[in-house]
């Protein structure tokens, strides 16, 4: 059935927007907010606005491509349709899969940062740190193996609850904002603000999950664009409010010591310890729900890539009627989350998605005639994504060289792996034909 004829899909506009918001307002904002404030200082809202504008620009390409090529594969399908099925596209698809795993690590680290605030200082140790991170991954893996239908069906409720809790914190805290903390004199230089916006770009990446649900969207030619633009627009507005509140309420001297849970500190002036705990609960809820959804989505993506012979066929197998990839995703994420620092994870994840979004914008530009879209906005999106990716990596080379080197190592491994998979697949097919 043609996508444009699907007038009876099970997901309406609000459900589609909920998917996008749920993908974005997960662990990202809780994990990277303190990092953004420590880098951009008073210009933190500007950094979030920059990252949001790039997400909104890329949403144009996703909206057009999703209407034209509905599939659970989403980004994978768009790249294949535009550039064909070769090792380069396979490498990009593998980078996408790995970027989801890095994002899972970020969410798990954010869960740990807020969860540990409920433990006394005497109990906080390396064991607690790694234990909480591991729990944040293992529990959702078990949930996914048992069947995640209940959580997936309650996504709208979970999103509304997260927004409600964040709304309480923002509204109650605005009267405590000290405007001088947002003055231009407190802004970091542009050479820092722009990289800060790119480091936190991972907080916006989840909008592309709408594309994976495109087949089930009601009246897609109208609903999909509204869902993409609406979800990104709402989240930009929310993040700007959160950034203004945090910078305006939390003293600069406190940011460094509470960077990992700075939003909880922002709630303290208005709501006291109750507000601090409220944000902690909201962060734990947001990160666990995001981990649960991302594990399932990553396993499904792995299944699709395995069918396309871009990942080993073990990813196609089942365990308890669920994709075996759930266990693979969980195991890899456990290693990364426990070995990498949160700053490195944020850089690697943001860089990965900026690269993928540059490719998706290029795919949209190449297919502009087929998808009835203007080519120029997509070309601009591709150039901007690639340019800010270079800026991010340039800054990381000075401030966080291990993260920069790890990202390039991931790229090299991804493309070498796909090249090897392609060679193996061809040799296997030749052997099979010779036997016949």
How would you describe what is shown here?
This protein is mostly helical. The protein has 17 helices and two strands. The chain has helices spanning 13-24, 28-40, 44-68, 75-83, 87-115, 126-146, 149-153, 155-173, 190-199, 209-212, 220-249, 252-255, 262-307, 325-339, 342-366, 375-399, 401-435, and strands at 318-319, 322-323. The protein has a two-stranded antiparallel sheet with strand order 1-2. The protein is globular.
Termini gap = 37 Å
Work out the helicity level. Answer: over 70%
Secondary-structure content class: mainly alpha
Low-confidence stretches: 428-436
Number of distinct helices: 17
Pattern of helices and strands? HHHHHHHHHHHHHEEHHHH
Write the layout of secondary structure elements.
Blueprint: H1 13-24, H2 28-40, H3 44-68, H4 75-83, H5 87-115, H6 126-146, H7 149-153, H8 155-173, H9 190-199, H10 209-212, H11 220-249, H12 252-255, H13 262-307, E1 318-319, E2 322-323, H14 325-339, H15 342-366, H16 375-399, H17 401-435
Antiparallel strand pairs: 1-2
Using brief descriptors, characterize the structure shown.
single chain; mainly alpha; two-stranded antiparallel sheet; 17 helices; 2 strands; 75% helix; 1% strand
Task: Sum this structure up briefly.
This protein has 436 residues and is mainly alpha-helical.
């Amino acid at each position: 059935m043609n996508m444009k004829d699907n007038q009876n899909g099970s997901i309406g506009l609000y459900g589609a927007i909920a998917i996008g918001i749920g993908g974005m307002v997960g662990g990202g904002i809780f994990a990277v907010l303190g990092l953004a404030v420590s880098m951009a200082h008073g210009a933190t809202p500007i950094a979030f606005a920059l990252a949001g504008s790039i997400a909104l620009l890329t949403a144009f390409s996703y909206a057009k491509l999703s209407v034209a090529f509905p599939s659970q594969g989403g980004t994978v399908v768009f790249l294949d349709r535009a550039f064909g099925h070769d090792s380069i596209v396979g490498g990009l698809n593998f980078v996408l899969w790995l970027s989801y795993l890095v994002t899972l690590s970020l969410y798990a680290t954010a869960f740990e940062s807020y969860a540990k605030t409920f433990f006394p200082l005497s109990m906080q140790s390396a064991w607690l740190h790694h234990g909480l991170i591991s729990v944040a991954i293992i529990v959702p893996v078990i949930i996914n193996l048992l069947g995640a239908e209940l959580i997936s069906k309650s996504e709208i409720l979970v999103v509304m609850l997260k927004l409600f809790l964040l709304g309480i914190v923002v509204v109650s805290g605005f009267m405590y904002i000290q405007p001088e903390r947002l003055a231009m004199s407190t802004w970091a230089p542009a050479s820092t603000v722009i990289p800060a916006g790119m480091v936190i770009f991972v907080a916006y990446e989840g909008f592309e999950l709408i594309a994976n649900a495109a087949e089930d969207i009601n009246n897609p030619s109208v609903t999909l664009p509204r869902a993409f633009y609406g979800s990104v627009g709402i989240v930009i507005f929310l993040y700007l409010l959160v950034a203004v509140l945090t910078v305006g309420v939390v003293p600069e001297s406190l940011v460094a010591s509470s960077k990992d849970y700075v939003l909880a500190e922002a709630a303290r002036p208005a709501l006291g310890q109750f507000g601090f705990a409220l944000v902690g609960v909201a962060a734990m809820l947001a990160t666990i729900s995001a981990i649960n959804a991302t594990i399932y989505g990553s396993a499904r993506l792995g299944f699709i890539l395995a069918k396309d012979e871009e990942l080993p066929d073990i990813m196609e197998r089942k365990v308890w009627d669920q994709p075996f990839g759930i266990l693979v995703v969980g195991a890899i994420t456990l290693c990364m989350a426990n070995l990498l620092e949160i700053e490195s994870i944020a850089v690697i994840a943001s860089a990965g998605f900026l690269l993928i979004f540059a490719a998706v914008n290029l795919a949209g530009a190449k297919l502009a005639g087929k998808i009835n879209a203007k080519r120029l906005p997509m070309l601009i999106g591709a150039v901007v994504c690639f340019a800010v990716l270079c800026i991010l990596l340039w800054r990381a080379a000075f401030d966080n060289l291990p993260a920069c080197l790890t990202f390039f190592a991931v790229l090299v491994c991804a493309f070498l792996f796909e090249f090897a998979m392609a060679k193996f697949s061809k040799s296997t097919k030749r052997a099979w034909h010779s036997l016949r």
